Amino acid sequence: MEELGLLFRLILAFLFLSTVVSKISDMGTHLSIVRAYQIIPYSWSKGFTYLDLGLQVTVAFSLLIGLFTTLGLSLAMLLLGAYTLAISINLAKGRKKISCGCGGMAGNHFLSWKLVLRNLVFISLAVCVGQWSGGWASVDHYLMSGSFEITNGAMAIFFSSVCISLLMAISGEISTFKHILRKRQG
Questions:
Q1: Residue 139 — pLDDT band, cuts 50, 70, 90?
Q2: 95, 137 contact by CB (below 8 A)
C-alpha cells in the first residue's frame, strides 16, 4: 500500500504545484476569479489570494518530498474543503458562470456539482495518503525512524526532484498541446 500512497501523494503534489504555477502566471485573472466568488470582502481578496498561493506552495512541496506530510495533507484537505464550500455556496445561489479558478492540471471550468464531487475525491485521496504513506520516498520516514542515513534521505530528495522535473515537463507538454488545440478551434 505504500506504493499507492506514494502515487496518490505525488498526484496531489502535482495538482497543487501545477495550480500554483498556473495562478502565478496570471495573477490578475486569478484575483478576478477570487473576487467573482463574492465570499470574502473585496478589500481582503488580494491578501487572501497571496495567502492561498502560499498555502498551496507549502502543500505541493510538503507532499512532493514527503516532509511534514501530515501538515501538507491537513492543509490540502483544508484548502480543498474551503474550495468545495465556496463552489457549493455559489451553486446554491445559482451562480454557475464563474470560473472555478483551479488552473493547472485540474483545468479551469465553470462551477458545477461535478467540481464538488471531484474535490471530494481529492480529499479522499489525501485521507488515503495519510493512511498509506511514509516509505522510502518520504523524507519524514527517515527523520522519524531514528536511523536516518544520509544516503537514504538524499535518495528520497533526489527521487522527489526527479518527480518534480518529470511532472513539470509533462505539464509543459500538456499546456503546449492545449494551446495548439485552442488555435485550431479559434
A1: low
A2: no
